[in-house]
Known about the structure:
The N and C termini lie far apart (144 Å). The strands form 2 sheets. A 7-stranded antiparallel sheet has the order 1-4-13-6-7-8-9, with no helix packed on it. It has a 7-stranded antiparallel sheet with strand order 2-3-14-5-10-11-12, with no helix packed on it. It contains 4 helices and 14 strands. The protein is of the alpha+beta class.
Amino acid sequence: xxxxxxxxxxxxxxxxxxxxxxxxxxxxxxxxxxxxxxxxxxxxxxxxxxxxxxxxxxxxxxxxxxxxxxxxxxxxxxxxxxxxxxxxxxxxxxxxxxxxxxxxxxxxxxxxxxxxxxxxxxxxxxxxxxxxxxxxxxxxxxxxxxxxxxxxxxxxxxxxxxxxxxxxxxxxxxxxxxxxxxxxxxxxxxxxxxxxxxxxxxxxxxxxxxxxxxxxxxxxxxxxxxxxxxxxxxxxxxxxxxxxxxxxxxxxxxxxxxxxxxxxxxxxxxxxxxxxxxxxxxxxxxxxxxxxxxxxxxxxxxxxxxxxxxxxxxxxxxxxxxxxxxxxxxxxxxxxxxxxxxxxxxxxxxxxxxxxxxxxxxxxxxxxxxxxxxxxxxxxxxxxxxxxxxxxxxxxxxxxxxxxxxxxxxxxxxxxx
Length: 417
C-alpha cells in the first residue's frame, strides 16, 4: 500500500461508516472534536467549568487542564449543561496524566441524573449521594493505575461510607501516567450491554446495566500533595449505530384551511395523493439532510487527521534535518581524524626509542648492581683466619684467669671451726 493512498482509503471508510451506521455526534454533550475547544478561551459551549476557588482550570485551544502541575491539592471539573436525549450512546474521552515519580490524583467521568452537583468538583470519596454512573481513574491498588466503575441509585452517601472501594462493580489495570501521549477511554451503552474499553482494549462489561436517557455527563479531577496534572483533549458523545437524528420541533407555517370536500370526490383523492407524496418527500429530504451532515462530519474528521499526519511528518523531517550532519561537517571530521592518525604515527617511533632506552637502562642497572655488591662483600668482610686467632686468644685469657684464681685461693689463710 502506498502512502498517498491512505487519505483516499480513510475517506472512503469514513463515508461508508457514516452512510451505513448512521451515527452522529451529540454536539451539546461534546467538545474538542472540532478545530478548537473554545474560540475565546473563556468557556466551552454547552459546558460549565468549575474549580475549587483557588486555581481555575486552564482552558487552551486544544485542551483543558483540570489540575495544574503545581501546586498540589487542586480540583477542577466540567459539566454538560444539556442532558443526553438518547438511551443508547457512545462516549469517548481523550486525556493525559503527567507528574513526578510519586505523583497522585484521580479522574472521574460522571453520568448522573442531577448533573452539576452543589460540590462542583467532587471525587468518588467526597461526593454525596448521586444517581447514575461514575468511572474513576487513579492509582488504586498500587499496580501502576486502574479504572473502576461505580453505580448508585441515590441512596448511598459515598462521602460517609466506610469502604467506598468495595462498591466498585468492575475494574481493570490501566497504566495511564507519563505515557507521552493521550489515552482514550470509551464508554458504550447499548440495548444489549454496557462496556468500558481503554485504548482499544476492553476493560469490563455487563449485560445487567441499563442507564436511562436524560442524564448529564461530567468530568472532574483532583490532585494530591505531589500532584498529577490531568489534561482533557476531547469528550465526544455520539449516538449508537442505526439511531436516526432527532431534529428540533418546528411549527409549520400557518396556512389557510383547505376547502371542504366530499370524501369520495376526485379533488379529495388528488389532495390525499399530494399529501402522501409530500410526506414521503419530507422523509426523504430529512434522511438526505442527515446523511449530508454525517458526511460533512466524516470529511472534517478525515481532513483533520490528514493535517495532523502531515504536520507530524513535517516536524519529524525538520528534526532529522537538524539532527543530521552536513557534508561539510563530515569532511571536516574526516580531516581531523586523519590528522590525529598522522600525529599518532609520528609518536610511534618516539615510543619505541623510549622503550628500548628503558630496557637498556634496566639491564645495565641489574649488571652493575650485582658486581658492586659482590665487590663490597669480598673486600669489606673480615677473613676467617683472623676470626679464629681472636677466638683462641680469648680462650687463653679465660684459662690464665682461672689458673690465677686457683693459686690465690690455695695460698690464702684457712679458717677452722
